[in-house]
Every structure is written in structure tokens, then in C-alpha cells.
Amino acid sequence: MDVTLREVRDTDLAVFYGQTTDPEGIRMAAFTAEDPADRARFDAHWARLRHDPEVVTLAVVGADGEVLGSIGVFGPPGEREVTYWIGREHWGRGVATAALRALLAAVPDRPLHARAAADNAGSLRVLATCGFTVTGHDRGYANARGAEIDEVLLTLTG
After folding, report:
1. What is the pTM of this model?
2. Residue 139 has what pLDDT?
């Protein structure tokens, strides 16, 4: 899959909002905002991300210029964590793997951490393919599921 990462533009936000309000995407991500449809909260969240110099936020763009999703890194040194959201219509095509590989090449910080719902096989496969290894398990309240669920903790050291 041919993807590029670029700075987030104002016009990308409508695409991101549509992706993060998709019911199936919400269920798979599990750990979402309490009300993903709250546009004011979404806009405030993205404004904070885009203006925080410690946070890397990038748009994932396909060869044709279509915005496929977002990807980023956040957190203090030694605890930095990757996050990504790819639109459901692009799942299963290698987009997340290609985007994460590009992000890892651009962000030299190590270790990097990741979390995924234990039943999110696609995301766990992407993380493992990119060199993350399972370092633990946890349980947390998943707004999207209305319950505590199992999650897998992963780390990339090299």
C-alpha cells in the first residue's frame, strides 16, 4: 500500500470526524470518547493535539490524495504511545501497516508503546508486523462497549 504522512489540514477534520463516528470503527477501537458524536468535543480535542508541540499528529494519505485516516504519537519521553485511526473502508488493505511503518521511520523515539482491545485482531496484527511485542495485559472501561474489556499492551524497543 502506497501511503504518505503529512501535516493535518483543517479540511482533514471533517474526514476524521466521519471516520471516528462510524459505529463499526467505534466498536473496534473500544476506547473512545464518551460521546464520539459530540462535534464540539472532537474539535476541541483536535485543536489541542495540533497545537501541542509534544504531540505528533499526521494525516494518512493515499496515492490519489484521499485522506485515509490519522496517526500520531503522544506522551512523555519513555512513555510515548502510538495511535491511529484508519477509515473502515480502507481496512484490510495494508494502510495501517504502511502508515505505522512510515511513522516509525519519522519518529525515532524509543521505546514506543501501544494499546489495543484484546479482540481487535487487525490492530494487534498491524502492531506485531511493525515490531511491537506484547508486554502486558490490562482491563479498562471501554466507552464504545459500555463495559470493562481486556486490552493488550505492546512495546517497540528497537
Report:
1. 0.95
2. 97
